[in-house]
Amino acid sequence: MASLTESVGKLPLRLRNFFARYPPQVYSALVAPRPTAPEGEASAEQNLPSPYTPDREAKGAHKEDREAFSFSRALLHNDPSNQNPFLPRKIFTTGKWIGPRYGLRQQADLVKLAIKYNVEPLLPPSTKSTEYKQARLAERGLRIKGTGIGQKVKGHKWERTMEARLEDRRKAMTEMPEMIRLWKQRGHGRGWRQWPKR
Question: According to the UniProt entry, which residue ranges have a biased composition of type Basic and acidic residues (predicted)?
Fold first, then answer.
């Protein structure tokens, strides 16, 4: 416990004030429940599909299903008894939403400071946290259609037909010696054919 107190004393005032108001024992990402995929869905890391799409019917990802499980959304946990200061919250009596206590710019500044001092896991879950950004990148891809988990790339026509053409070429190369032998047997390999003059 003394080492934690010493390390907190070395933090900048802004982080110390934040941890005084929102203690890590209650609000941090370490105490938040870890999201797990529902039993019916396989985890995205287990079976990554090939991004190559050989047929024209499978065209990239469709619109995002808001009801489907998303690891990145599950990371943003908001406990009703201890509201996350980085997330908006709903007043259940009126049904209205209140914005987060810390805006996105303030969240980004706090996360940068926490990364600098190696205390990022002590912050509450946020859209600016490194873990959330990595999960989001894995789900969405590299901002190029088809590079995310479960998405497919349509590609150019020459890319879609390349496998079939390479297979035809390989088959023709294996049959080439037999074709040459038959060609010479019929007498076609003796020289140039003389075309009749008109």
Answer: 54-64
